[in-house]
């Protein structure tokens, strides 16, 4: 297969194919051209090309760059991550297909580090400003006592006699041979006879770390930040895992978020609504003065342009919506009650109350 090849042609899908179509095409082709199942001379090259194509097209950001700039828009061409492959094929089939192939160029027993997934709370103020925020968490790190070997000082691990140190054995399932992890050494290729007292033979220990995390301005609830290589340490040459931080927006005392817009509910008195007034409302930048028109009805929304949140993709900034709610007074003084009763007696069918008049007219028609 020529290189560079069009990734959509490699997977045999249309350029507008969705994620499910990509996953299905990749799964079928990976099984068809896996070198342990296909003896054709070009099977391994095609298998690598299929992996490369799926790694790009299954990643929305890489796919967007590829659609716009082609191969030149990609900084590198790595294959799909192990976690993504396990999602496509499931654990057992992944081990059968990729267990031996993925380790051909690595040391026997090499193991990818664990990914770490954490909730990442942020405030609306932090979302609006963007910048950096610290996160402290625990992850697996190489044991300093045994330098990751898992063995006590003066004792080296011994080669597994069941797999000859390869960590993989070939087994027969019906007519189809499969490659799977060695059950004796659990895919390590070696056996630790005198485990390290610190890590108990695992070669890994827990460590606590604090990292500075870039927070894109405008990022939203449920979005995930991925920090490559900041997860658990790999074993015996395996790549480290990644850190995934799931954005959780803290509840704000004044604002609710509606996309890039902020909604703020502000109570006003009946005289303010009837006569009009200027009121002070909170914004993320401080206080702002807002004019309440005379005759304002409860629920009316006033818009403050550009006082919302920045768009995470850099497309401007949202607005702040101020929803006015007329508050009914309670615990009236005698004088207040007297004035309100006088106002009610003067109101009647006053044309300044069109909604009430319309309601009463309809009510009258209904029962007359």
CATH topology of the domain at 255-367: HSP40/DNAj peptide-binding domain
How is the main sheet built? 4 strands, mixed
Name the average pLDDT: 83
Stretches where pLDDT is under 50 for at least 5 consecutive residues are 100-106
Number of helices: 10
| Physical arrangement of strands within the biggest beta sheet | 10-11-15-14
CATH domain class of the domain at 255-367 = Mainly Beta
Structural class category: alpha+beta
Q: Work out the strand percent.
A: 25-35%
CATH architectural grouping of the domain at 255-367: Sandwich
The count of strands amounts to 15
Order of helices and strands: HHHHHHEHEEEEEEEEEEHEEEEHH
What does this structure look like?
About 2% of the residues have low confidence. Helix 2 packs antiparallel against helix 3 and helix 5 crosses helix 6. Strands 10-11-15-14 form a four-stranded mixed beta sheet. It has a three-stranded mixed beta sheet with strand order 1-9-8. It has a two-stranded antiparallel sheet with strand order 2-7. It is elongated. The longest helix has 15 residues. It has ten helices and 15 strands. It is an alpha+beta fold. Helices cover 27% and strands 26% of the residues. Among the domains are: 98 residues, DnaJ domain (Helix Hairpins); 113 residues, HSP40/DNAj peptide-binding domain.
């Amino acid at each position: 297969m020529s290189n560079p090849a069009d990734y959509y042609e490699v997977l045999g899908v249309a350029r507008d194919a969705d994620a499910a179509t990509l996953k299905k095409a990749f799964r079928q082709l990976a099984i068809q051209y896996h070198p342990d199942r296909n003896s054709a001379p070009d099977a391994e090259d095609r298998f690598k090309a299929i992996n490369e194509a799926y790694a790009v097209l299954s990643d929305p950001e890489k796919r967007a760059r590829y659609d716009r700039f082609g191969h030149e828009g990609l900084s590198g061409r790595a294959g799909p991550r192990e976690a993504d492959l396990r999602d496509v094929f499931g654990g057992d089939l992944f081990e059968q297909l990729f267990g031996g192939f993925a380790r051909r160029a690595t040391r026997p027993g090499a193991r990818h580090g664990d990914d770490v997934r954490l909730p990442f709370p942020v405030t609306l103020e932090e979302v609006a400003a963007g910048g950096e925020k610290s996160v402290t968490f625990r992850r697996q790190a190489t044991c300093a006592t045994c330098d990751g070997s898992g063995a006590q000082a003066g004792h080296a691990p011994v080669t597994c006699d069941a797999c000859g140190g390869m960590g993989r054995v070939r087994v027969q399932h019906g007519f189809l041979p499969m490659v799977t992890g060695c059950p004796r050494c659990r895919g390590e290729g070696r056996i630790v006879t005198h485990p390290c007292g610190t890590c108990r033979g695992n070669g890994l220990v827990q460590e606590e770390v604090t990292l500075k995390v870039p927070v894109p301005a405008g990022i939203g609830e449920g979005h995930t930040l991925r920090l490559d290589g900041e997860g658990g340490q790999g074993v015996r040459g395996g790549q480290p895992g990644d850190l995934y931080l799931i954005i959780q927006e803290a509840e704000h005392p004044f604002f609710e978020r509606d996309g890039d817009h902020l909604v703020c509910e502000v109570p006003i008195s009946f005289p303010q609504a009837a006569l009009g007034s200027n009121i002070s409302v909170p914004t993320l930048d401080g206080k702002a003065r807002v004019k309440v028109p005379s005759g304002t009805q409860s629920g009316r929304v006033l818009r403050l342009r550009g006082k919302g949140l920045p768009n995470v993709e850099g497309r401007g900034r949202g607005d702040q919506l101020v929803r006015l709610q007329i508050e009914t007074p309670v615990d009236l003084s005698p004088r207040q009650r007297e004035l309100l009763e006088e106002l009610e007696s003067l109101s009647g069918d006053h044309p300044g109350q069109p909604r009430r008049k319309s309601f009463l007219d309809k009510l009258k028609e209904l029962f007359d």
